[in-house]
């Protein structure tokens, strides 16, 4: 069991996979951490020595922004847009797509689950 | 795709003249502009622009956070107040 960057306890997976459980570390950053520290691909998290775990922890602390800090930065960026009253900010406020996607159909990720419109006639054949 | 850095920010040239004239005159008048596509430059900070949205000139007070955005972003062109049946529609 290894705790890296706060509360993350990746399991007995490969290191490159386990590191991705940290918010802010994806495939490419996980890969680059392993190559920088010379950890072979097929090493599992539970096979890491304490020294290696320490090195990973230090590297992440030094080079990358992860977890709470990163979440805060993202939230701040969105908040800045919303306070600015620019178009993107308005879209964030309304919970609609920000980057010009269509909203006639789809956009369900932003709009949430579809809500039935009261009193709308069903098409009958 | 993002604009190449070597080109610098895009601004319609006459805006620079207008902004400078407004600064020289000293009065904080609304500068009417149609150029929604122009980037907001640091030298526009503090001035008030009337950005045309196809209907009227919406006043936009430029502050330093707006630098790098376009004028058009601050002057919405569409009005959507919600559907008639949508009771909990919120205004943005």
UniProtKB/TrEMBL annotation, chain A:
GO terms for cellular component: cytosol; small ribosomal subunit. The keyword NAD does not apply. GO terms for molecular function: rRNA binding; structural constituent of ribosome; tRNA binding. InterPro entries: Rbsml_uS13_C, Ribosomal_uS13, Ribosomal_uS13-like_H2TH, Ribosomal_uS13_bac-type, Ribosomal_uS13_CS. PROSITE patterns: RIBOSOMAL_S13_1 (PS00646), RIBOSOMAL_S13_2 (PS50159). Gene3D superfamilies: 1.10.8.50, 30s ribosomal protein s13, domain 2 (4.10.910.10). Keywords: Ribonucleoprotein, Ribosomal protein, RNA-binding, rRNA-binding, tRNA-binding. The keyword Ribonucleoprotein applies. One of its GO terms (biological process) is translation. Coiled coil: none annotated. Belongs to the universal ribosomal protein uS13 family. Located at the top of the head of the 30S subunit, it contacts several helices of the 16S rRNA. In the 70S ribosome it contacts the 23S rRNA (bridge B1a) and protein L5 of the 50S subunit (bridge B1b), connecting the 2 subunits; these bridges are implicated in subunit movement. Contacts the tRNAs in the A and P-sites. NCBIfam families: uS13_bact. Part of the 30S ribosomal subunit. Forms a loose heterodimer with protein S19. Forms two bridges to the 50S subunit in the 70S ribosome. This is Small ribosomal subunit protein uS13. It comes from Endobacter medicaginis.
UniProtKB/TrEMBL annotation, chain B:
It comes from the Bacteria. Pfam families: Ribosomal_S19. InterPro entries: Ribosomal_uS19, Ribosomal_uS19_bac-type, Ribosomal_uS19_CS, Ribosomal_uS19_SF. Gene3D superfamilies: 30s Ribosomal Protein S19, Chain A (3.30.860.10). The keyword Nucleotide-binding does not apply. GO terms for molecular function: rRNA binding; structural constituent of ribosome. GO terms for cellular component: cytoplasm; small ribosomal subunit. Signal peptide: none annotated. Keywords: Ribonucleoprotein, Ribosomal protein, RNA-binding, rRNA-binding. Belongs to the universal ribosomal protein uS19 family. HAMAP family: Ribosomal_uS19 (MF_00531). This is Small ribosomal subunit protein uS19. It comes from Endobacter medicaginis. The gene is rpsS.
């Amino acid at each position: 069991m290894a705790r890296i960057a706060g509360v993350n306890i990746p399991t007995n997976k490969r290191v490159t996979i386990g590191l991705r459980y940290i918010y802010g570390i994806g495939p490419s950053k996980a890969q680059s951490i392993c190559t920088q520290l010379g950890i072979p691909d097929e090493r599992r998290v539970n096979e890491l020595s304490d020294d290696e775990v320490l090195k990973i922890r230090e590297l992440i602390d030094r080079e990358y922004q992860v977890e709470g800090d990163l979440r805060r930065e993202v939230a701040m960026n969105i908040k800045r847009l919303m306070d600015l009253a620019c178009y993107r900010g308005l879209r964030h406020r309304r919970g609609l797509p920000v980057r010009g996607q269509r909203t006639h159909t789809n956009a369900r990720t932003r709009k949430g689950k579809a809500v039935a419109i009261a009193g709308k006639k069903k098409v009958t054949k | 795709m993002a604009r190449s850095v070597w080109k610098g920010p895009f601004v319609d040239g006459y805006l620079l003249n207008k902004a400078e004239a407004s600064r020289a005159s000293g009065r904080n008048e609304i500068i009417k502009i149609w150029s929604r596509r122009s980037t907001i430059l640091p030298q526009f900070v503090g001035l008030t622009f009337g950005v045309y949205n196809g209907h009227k000139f919406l006043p936009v007070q430029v502050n330093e956070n707006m630098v790098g955005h376009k004028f058009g972003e601050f002057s919405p062109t569409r009005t959507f107040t919600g559907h008639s049946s949508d009771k909990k529609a919120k205004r943005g």
